[in-house]
Amino acid sequence: MAGWIGRSVICVLAALLLASSTIASSDGPFIIANKKAKLTRLKSGSERVSVSIDVYNQGSTTAYDVTLNDGGWTQDIFDIVSGNTSTSWERLDAGALQSHSFELEAKTKTMFYGAPAVITYRVPTKAALQEAYSTPILPLDILADRPPEKKFEWAKKLLVKYGPLISVVSIVVLFVYLVATPSKSSGPKGSKKKR
Predict the structure, then answer these.
(1) 77 contacts 107 by C-beta, under 8 angstroms
(2) Which residues, 6+ apart, have CB-to-CB distance to 178 below 8 Å?
(3) Are strands 31-41 and 47-57 parallel, antiparallel or unpaired?
(4) Alpha carbon distance 169, 157 (integer Å)
(5) What are the angstrom distances between the C-alpha of 176 and each of 78, 165, 168, 169?
(6) In the prediction, which pLDDT does 22 show?
(7) What local confidence, expressed as pLDDT, does residue 9 receive?
(8) Of 43, 87, 110, 132, which residue has the fewest beta carbons closer than 10 angstroms?
(9) Is the per-residue pLDDT at 50 higher than 80?
(10) Rounded to whole angstroms, what are the CA distances from 174 to 127, 165, 170, 180, 184?
């Protein structure tokens, strides 16, 4: 009885593995998008958000009429400084990468939770447009009160990172110096014999 149940479980797992590998290797584009945002504080006190979105086609065929739309940036909070929040490409070949970036300037102080970008594309074998989503970004604390950077912060980081190495090297160098240098004598003690 236990052998029969074990064999049936193995058969079911093998069938699921075969089905999943068939679905994964199906002919068609597979779009993956990675969205990144970086805050930069300007000297004027304002803050800029640099957004870049990388769109990959990990599938086995070309995706056509690829459109990227990142409309989650509300005009109440942001002004577009450079670039555009949407773009399109005629095609995205299998294994290809396309990147899009734009820059925004923040108007108000807030915690912003951005939505994923939407990518639509056409597959020649299907009539309907296909849709994919980018990765979401982490919440952005826009125009937050941050303490000013300390002037010697870089020195502290170097000391923390390389401090133990510097101390070990200096101890080894001091030891080699003490062993290699001859000792100074206070006079010719070795030449006189005591009687």
Answers:
(1) yes
(2) none
(3) antiparallel
(4) 19
(5) 62, 17, 12, 11
(6) 45
(7) 52
(8) 43
(9) yes
(10) 78, 14, 6, 10, 17
- Tell if the pTM clears 0.85, that is, is over it: no
- Pairing of β 31-41 and β 97-106: unpaired
- Each residue's pLDDT tens digit, 109-161: 899 999 999 999 999 888 899 999 999 999 998 888 776 666 667 777 877 88
Please, which residues have CB within 8 angstroms of residue 82's CB and are 6 or more apart in sequence? 102, 103
Is 66:97 a contact under the CB 8 Å cutoff? Answer: no
DSSP per-residue letters across the chain: -HHHHHHHHHHHHHHHHHHHHHHHT-SS--EEEEEEEEEEE-TTS-EEEEEEEEEEE-SSS-EEEEEEE-TTS-TTTEEEEES-SEEEEEEE-TT-EEEEEEEEEE-S-EEE-PPPPEEEEE-TT-SSPEEEEBPPPPPEEET---PPPPTTHHHHHHHHHHHHHHHHHHHHHHHHHHHHSPPPPSS--SS----
Given a contact cutoff of 8 angstroms between Cβ atoms, the answer to whether 73 and 45 are in contact is: no
Distance CA 124, CA 52 (A): 28
pLDDT tens-digit readout, 16-37: 444 444 444 457 899 999 999 9
